[in-house]
Write a structure and sequence with these properties.
- The structure holds two protein chains of two kinds.
- Chain A is mainly alpha-helical.
- Chain A has one domain (12-222).
- Chain A has eleven helices and four strands, in the order ααααβββααααβααα.
- A two-stranded antiparallel sheet of chain A has the order 1-4. Chain A has a two-stranded antiparallel ribbon with strand order 2-3.
- In chain A, strand 2 and strand 3 form a beta hairpin.
- In chain A, helix 1 runs parallel beside helix 5 (143-165), helix 2 packs across helix 8 and helix 9 (222-237) crosses helix 10.
- Chain B has one domain.
- Chain B is 72% helix and 3% strand.
- Chain B has 14 helices and three strands.
- In chain B, strands 1-2-3 form a three-stranded antiparallel β-sheet, with helices on one face.
- In chain B, helix 1 (2-25) runs antiparallel to helix 9, helix 1 packs antiparallel against helix 11 and helix 10 packs across helix 11 (238-253).
- The radius of gyration of chain B is 20 Å and the shape is globular.
- Chain B starts with a helix and ends in a 6-residue tail after the last helix.
- Classes of the chains: A mainly alpha, B mainly alpha.
- Chain A binds chain B through residues 39, 86-87, 90-92, 95-102, 104-109, 111-113, 115-116, 224, 227-228, 231-232, 235, 239, 266, 269-270, 273-274, 276-277, 280-281, 284, 293, and chain B through 25, 30, 77-78, 80-86, 88-89, 91-93, 95-96, 99-100, 102-103, 218-219, 223, 226-227, 230-231, 234, 258-259, 261-263, 265-270, 272-274, 277-278.
């Protein structure tokens, strides 16, 4: 095989694995958007809060990574419930921009609290998967990317099962489709909203853990970066389409890795946003979306 | 004194950004990309005075024209989508501009300084107002003068037929097109003027601070510019002005509180939205205030005999 093809394939594998991570972020945004028809800009901050909180037992008691992982998820869920309570529950209906603004307010509150408590210094994160690359035939693979792949497949399967095989999933899809009709048929919209927040925030915990592990530290810039990627993936796939988020995430991952390898890292983000802009204009509904903008 | 002059300058510049978002918002759209036009205006105006030796006024005008032209070019395709899609598309545009400036290098050595956009170093040493001996207070006057010009423009725009068309498009696009309004043209017009206003803010900013870099036109600036009109209210151009004065003023007056400052800022936004979801100066308030004005009362038709 020629080197170009070989390199291209290696980046394709890496891109697909890292794309799973993007798909997780996009999936979280999409589930929230699908059910609430609202946009939660504080989601990136929820992820970051979990990632930072996971470090507390490690720094205090030198706890093992599993404790860190569980703490991350638990704290993310708590923060998610706080966001729901402060930004959505008491909001009057029929105002599109108000929830955008309340979540921006929440984003500022969470981010600044973290910056204040940590003096804006990145905190070192443990590397539970080692940093030795695994050899798979001619290709080198990072172990943490492999872990991301496994965890994403498990998470996606769980979410698909929940959405399409359980009563709660059916209620969620009903609320996403027609909230008022679902309410009349006896589905508690508020209940579904809260449970959706619990679900997506648990996902946020997983995302936060891997986001911090893959760069080796928890940093305050995380939130903005995660929000940017999440939005791009969500729009690429089509707003509110969960399978779309997976496709969008994988596409973005592959695209970025190939771009870094062949064009250089300074083009990575420009390319991502240029593609986003083009997709929006040519196919406003996203790759798998059916709803028109 | 210098401190208040600095705050005044920042308020003036941010108020223009707020007005820029507001103009897009009153046709029912939301832009997270005005910082891209701000950056374009800043770089063009900075280049004009620092490298091409232009006077401040033509430099600002050039910045406005280029920002507006790009607004027109971006607006045509971008305004085909709306709502959240547009918010994200415009944010994508803003990021493209920011990342482009992160890679652009066009410098010249003047004396012992390297002047011009210098990739990640940013655009430094725009020393026009220092070289001409313009004091910060005088420059604040220039900023406020520009703001007054923009506000007068907005005042007449709101009362014009075009302003009514923008509001009609926000209310109901289908109905607006049924009564013969060219919805796309109205939206693109609003977007273009808004881009020009953001470009003006950028041009004024780079001469105020003497430099700009890509970090200054990232997501936080987008969030700030969107916050002013939504917090201040979308009922009238007074809303974004009030938003900029209140929020910049609040940030500055809480400076001694360190960590608690941003906390209060965020909490205030949440509380305001819970009680006034369309901002402080919403349509209802505008109507009520107009009812108080004697001017309005005089124009009411006389009761039928």
């Amino acid at each position: 095989m020629s080197t170009v093809l070989l390199d291209g394939t290696e980046q394709l594998i890496n891109g697909l694995m890292y794309g799973c991570f993007y798909a997780l972020i996009g999936g979280g945004f999409t589930l929230l958007f699908g059910v609430l028809r609202r946009f939660n800009l504080a989601y990136g901050s929820t992820i970051m809060a979990g990632a930072y909180a996971g470090l507390i037992p490690v720094y205090l008691f030198n706890a093992p990574v599993l404790v860190l992982f569980v703490t991350t998820i638990v704290v993310s869920v708590l923060v998610g419930l706080l966001v729901e309570f402060c930004c959505f529950r008491f909001l009057r209906k029929g105002h599109e921009l108000a929830p955008l603004m309340t979540t921006i307010g929440m984003l500022i509150v969470i981010d600044e609290t973290i910056v204040y408590l940590t003096d804006a210094v990145g905190l070192k994160y443990p590397a539970p998967f080692g940093d030795e690359s695994l050899a798979l035939g001619p290709f080198l693979i990072r172990p943490d990317y492999l872990a991301i792949l496994v965890v994403s497949v498990v998470s996606f399967s769980a979410i698909f099962y929940l959405l399409y095989r359980t009563r709660f999933g059916r209620a969620m899809r009903a609320v996403a489709e027609r909230p008022d009709a679902a309410q009349i048929l006896g589905v508690s919209v508020r209940h579904v909203n809260v449970l959706t927040f619990v679900l997506t925030s648990a996902l946020a915990g997983i995302i936060g853990f891997f986001a911090a592990v893959s760069v080796g530290s928890a940093r305050p810039e995380m939130a903005a970066w995660l929000t940017g990627k999440g939005l791009v993936v969500m729009v690429l796939g089509g707003l509110g389409s969960f399978p779309g988020a997976i496709v969008g995430g994988l596409a973005l991952g592959v695209l970025e890795f190939e771009a870094v390898w062949f064009l250089g890292s300074s083009y990575r983000d420009i390319l991502a946003f240029a593609i986003l802009f083009l997709v929006l204009i040519v196919r406003p509904g996203g790759l798998l979306g059916t709803r028109t903008a | 004194m210098e401190y208040y002059v600095a705050i005044g300058s920042i308020i003036g510049i941010h108020a223009m950004l707020g007005l820029s978002v507001y103009l897009v918002a009153i046709s029912g759209q939301m832009s997270f990309g005005q910082q891209g036009f701000f950056a374009l205006g800043a770089y063009l105006a900075g280049l004009s005075t620092a490298l091409w030796g232009l006077h401040l006024l033509p430099a600002l005008v050039l910045g406005v024209v280029v920002a507006a032209a790009v607004g027109l070019l971006v607006g045509f395709p971008a305004l085909r989508v709306r709502g959240l899609y547009l918010a994200i598309a415009t944010f994508g545009f803003g990021e493209i501009v920011r990342l482009a400036f992160l890679n652009v290098r066009y410098t010249r050595r003047i004396g012992d300084r390297v002047v011009g956009p210098n990739a990640s170093e940013g655009f430094r040493h725009v020393r026009y107002i220092y070289d001409r001996g313009i004091t910060p207070l005088e420059y604040l006057g220039i900023i406020l003068l520009a703001l007054v010009v923009v506000v007068i423009l907005f005042y007449f725009l709101e009362r014009s037929k075009l302003g009514a068309k923008l509001r009609a498009v926000e209310e109901d696009e289908v109905a607006a097109s049924m009564i013969g309004i060219n919805v796309t043209r109205v939206k693109v017009f609003g977007f273009t003027v808004a881009a020009g206003v953001a470009g003006l803010a950028g041009g004024l900013f780079i001469h105020y601070s003497s430099y700009i870099d890509h970090d200054m036109v990232a997501l936080p600036l987008a969030i700030a510019s969107v916050t002013y009109p939504i917090f201040g209210g979308l009922g009238s151009f007074v809303g974004p002005l009030l938003g900029a004065v209140a929020l910049v003023g609040l940030t500055e007056s809480l400076r001694t509180l360190h960590g608690a400052r941003e906390f209060i800022y965020g909490a205030l936004i949440i509380l305001t939205m819970l009680f006034r979801p369309r901002g402080i100066v919403d349509e209802a308030l505008v109507l009520r205030v107009k009812g108080w004005l004697p001017l309005r009362a005089a124009r009411r038709p006389a009761p039928a005999p």
